[in-house]
């Protein structure tokens, strides 16, 4: 048996001991089991099984387990009578969150349970309500995006709307969308473009072009993720389970479109600015040390609405829709306009097209 396998067994043995100790309390005031019975045995922790059965990254699994055991020590001590019911509930939520599995592998019941925990945790912490969805992809829907270079005037309303809608960190001024100011005659030369410009737009002799996550059909970022924290959903949206991201940033290095952002510090969104209409795989609050990106505003698109950037664009340069719907506007654009995609030679098949009138 290798050293790493010995360590894995030892940690599992420690967890089993915690589980055993937490269900062997003596005394009439213990509430560990549903019947207050010391012989009560808890149900199998699906998240725990995923930690040990995930073959793709043993190191991250051990890291998660170690953090969980530390939290578990607090949960075990909670077997003693606790006068503060809210504190007890917070401890239970923290324990269950530590051992939840990868969202991609959860059942629908498990998805609802983890969303309910996050909503309840927010209520306990702030005393305010939060709406979080776990809605999955609709049948016969494949989202795509088209950008009309002729119409974009560089106003950046799309960026501001995206920041507000998706609860992006205000301190670092994180932005999923980039608007590139290109000089006429230089073609699509991103090396000479300006992403930050502080003058009246549109500027004479320039045109404007937006980039963001392109939700590639053959996404390089998905291939390199060691923990399977990112994947493509059936409706084409490439998503991230922030709780399984370990911040290695392989996905950032693999993305040829600069579509991902890393949280170097704890994200800050003032309470009064927080968008409380959220999706688990979208604009829920992230944490320090994880990667995030555009999700086609999954909290909106899966409810039949356009992404915030599309709605905010004052010139109608942005078009979003279902590629499988022959009557959709985006299908009309693809069939009637001369369209192109960036770096098509890479074979990533981005679901983001550009065109001009």
From TrEMBL:
Keyword entries, A-Z: 4Fe-4S, Iron, Iron-sulfur, Metal-binding
What's the superkingdom here?
Bacteria
Which is a Pfam family this sequence falls into?
A: Fer4_11
- Extract the GO molecular function terms from the UniProt entry: 4 iron, 4 sulfur cluster binding; metal ion binding
Q: Does the keyword Hydrolase apply?
A: no
What range(s) does the 4Fe-4S ferredoxin-type domain occupy? Answer: 236-265
**What's this protein's name?**
Molybdopterin-containing oxidoreductase family iron-sulfur binding subunit
Write down the species: Aureibacter tunicatorum
């Amino acid at each position: 048996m290798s050293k790493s396998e010995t360590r894995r067994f030892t940690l599992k043995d420690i967890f089993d001991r915690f589980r055993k100790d937490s269900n062997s309390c003596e005394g009439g005031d213990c509430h560990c089991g549903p019947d207050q019975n010391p012989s009560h045995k808890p149900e199998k922790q699906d998240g725990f099984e995923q930690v040990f059965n995930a073959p793709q990254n043993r190191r991250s699994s051990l890291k998660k387990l170690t953090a969980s055991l530390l939290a578990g020590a607090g949960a075990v001590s909670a077997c003693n009578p606790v006068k503060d019911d809210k504190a007890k509930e917070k401890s239970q939520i923290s324990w269950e969150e530590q051992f939840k599995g990868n969202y991609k592998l959860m059942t629908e019941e498990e998805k609802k349970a983890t969303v309910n925990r996050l909503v309840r945790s927010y209520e306990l912490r702030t005393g305010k309500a939060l709406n979080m969805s776990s809605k999955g992809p609709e049948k016969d829907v494949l989202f795509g995006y088209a950008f009309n270079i002729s119409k974009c005037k560089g106003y950046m309303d799309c960026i501001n709307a995206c920041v507000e809608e998706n609860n992006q960190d205000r301190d670092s001024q994180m932005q999923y969308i980039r608007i590139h100011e290109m000089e006429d005659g230089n073609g699509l030369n991103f090396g000479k473009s300006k992403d930050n410009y502080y003058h009246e737009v549109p500027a004479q002799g320039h045109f404007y072009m937006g980039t963001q996550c392109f939700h590639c059909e053959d996404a390089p970022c998905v291939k390199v993720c060691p923990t399977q924290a990112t994947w493509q959903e059936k409706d084409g949206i490439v998503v991230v389970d922030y709780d399984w991201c370990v911040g290695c940033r392989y996905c950032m290095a693999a993305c040829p479109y600069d579509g991902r952002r890393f949280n170097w510090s704890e994200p800050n969104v003032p309470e009064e600015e927080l968008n409380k209409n959220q999706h688990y795989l979208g604009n829920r609050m992230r944490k320090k040390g994880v990667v995030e990106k555009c999700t086609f505003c999954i909290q909106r698109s899966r409810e039949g609405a356009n992404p915030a950037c599309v709605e905010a664009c004052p010139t109608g340069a942005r078009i979003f829709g279902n590629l499988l719907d022959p009557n959709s506007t985006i299908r009309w654009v693809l069939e009637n306009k001369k369209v192109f995609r960036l770096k098509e030679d890479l074979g990533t098949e981005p679901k983001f097209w550009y065109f001009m009138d």
